């Protein structure tokens, strides 16, 4: 039987999800053609902010790669836009003149960003934040400009601001409302969010109305209606989106705010459907992924001729992390008139919870700082659950198995685990029991749970453990370090120890690598694990390191390098400064910059000049390129400051000299502040020290980068010697148990602060860890001096080998 011709206009998340659902229902019913205006396969727009923040590549957010289209015999035209629908001919026409007939047509043109019609909105440096192209514009701007203004204090605006902040820009958020994210959060949660984001470095202008974007060719700033101004080199408009209905409108399809559809996502034109942000159902165009995926299921069943429950609209919920802060909202969360609320505010931990009731029925909720109960509350809101028989407020309940029965154990089968993809607990249990799924990855492949934002992975794992019971194998939840092997980090380290392996190729041969040579992901990891297990006998394999570590300098976009000499504790002297100045002049280094870690960075050094620059500087490497201790930031401390209670510079210098050159799973930064004012920002470092009367507080697991995290208080100690001992044991335990490329912030959340404290509380273990630390440090040699002294290495790296 000849297949029907199905055309999808729009290669975004909602449209392609509809195709996925159609393939599930009837794989062989349609000959499918997809048009996408962007040059990419289908990607996860929700995660664009991670690309902007710099820790994720476009390929990492791709939902359906090129192979998926081929495997499903889908014809994909990327970079091509449908400009006309001809209902009489039942065909579409593209901007490249391509004519494709259809039997069934799905319009999924999504939405377009709303650009405020301000004078100057067309200047260079003004962009939206909607797609990969916008992200690229912002990334490029951050390399050359420093002041960014984000218009819009909703979710998208705050994500853009966080990304630009990470890129080193000075960021101000302009918002017309008095509080942030007013569509998702009430006033209290909005102000709490503002306070947290201000700690991260964001600036806010609330109740501010932009009147004009000024500048010559490029934006130079904003003028506001009250007469004030703000300098800006980059302006990001994130004030909302509107359904992209132009094609439908020109084709005579009924539109309002969106393309009008019925309960089966049909337009008023025969054989034409619409789904996603461009569609309007019962007067509502939806902008969140969960309702769009619900629509996709209904459309798929109907277009395949299957009986389908009609789409009845969606109760909206939002569960996400805004710059590392957990927030959740659902339903009607504004109290007043016939609605009353229950509110709990834990000021110490920054947690706020609000439940809105209409009579005894829960109709809305807001959670800030702790959103793990979001799915359960959302399910109750959708059911209009009566809470008459529940205890509404309890205080200081003990933590433990008896008091805290698993959240998923109390959930009914129809309650949603994965809000993005609409996957219920029952669907996951069914996949486990009927399809033999035994891991989170298997559940993801089978049901799509955790496929979008990934926030529900812990709940999926809990359902697995609850369902499988004694058959649940925690080891089966392991993640292989890459696609070359099925082995986890623990299995590789154990194999190295048990079999006495000493070389990367030996590890791969003995432990059964599927790829003989390994890859750029596993080779550096294995290289680190070998050195960590046997530091005194292992010979570092330079070829398996990333280019910066191989060259002992940071490569820049123009092929030159930056050099950061070591300045212990951020302290320098006239001789060092004089040598730096002489080097800058001698080698015509174009940029000298003081870093955030209190060091001097020399940018624009030519590759073949690197050894000569190092020799003339006569300073140790600052390891600004390495997975090692980078820097120890200090305040001036009791030596000069009238508030200082401790010698912060002294401890900082001792720490940096002690752990200089230590190889770690990821970069490590420290800071020492002489008093609780924490001028060295000790609370947001991998290890931070804050002086108090009679000693030090030691904070661990902080991160001021992509995923901002405040440090946890590990110990209070009385002496510098105790601080050094605890630091050595802590760092060695991190070295031995963390995954390669796992920051301390992620590691401490994974293993738990209490667990680390229990290890370090054992004095014998602490002594053993420090002994192994001393062994690792005993082999350290400054790499710059090693290269200078080796003509062979200098020739190989800086004269004959090109770096791609």
UniProtKB/TrEMBL annotation:
Binding site for siroheme: 679
Domain Nitrite/Sulfite reductase ferredoxin-like residues, every copy: 556-618
Pfam family, one: Rubredoxin_C
Occurrences of domain Nitrite/sulphite reductase 4Fe-4S (ranges): 626-763
Domain NADH-rubredoxin oxidoreductase C-terminal intervals: 317-384
Residue span, FAD/NAD(P)-binding domain: 5-281
BP terms from Gene Ontology: nitrate assimilation
Binding of [4Fe-4S] cluster, residues: 635, 641, 675, 679
CDD domains in the cross-refs: NirB_Fer2_BFD-like_1, NirB_Fer2_BFD-like_2
Cofactor note (record): Binds 1 siroheme per subunit. Binds 1 [4Fe-4S] cluster per subunit.
GO terms of molecular function: 2 iron, 2 sulfur cluster binding; 4 iron, 4 sulfur cluster binding; flavin adenine dinucleotide binding; heme binding; metal ion binding; NADP binding; nitrite reductase activity
Every BFD-like [2Fe-2S]-binding domain range: 416-465, 481-530
Cofactors named for this entry: [2Fe-2S] cluster; FAD; siroheme; [4Fe-4S] cluster
Keywords: 2Fe-2S, 4Fe-4S, FAD, Flavoprotein, Heme, Iron, Iron-sulfur, Metal-binding, Nitrate assimilation, Oxidoreductase
Pathway terms, separated by semicolons: Nitrogen metabolism; nitrate reduction (assimilation)
InterPro entries, A to Z: BFD-like_2Fe2S-bd_dom, BFD-like_2Fe2S-bd_dom_sf, FAD/NAD-bd_sf, FAD/NAD-binding_dom, FAD/NAD-linked_Rdtase_dimer_sf, NasD-like, NiRdtase/SiRdtase_haem-b_fer, Nit/Sulf_reduc_fer-like_dom_sf
Similarity remark: Belongs to the nitrite and sulfite reductase 4Fe-4S domain family.
Protein name per the record: Nitrite reductase large subunit
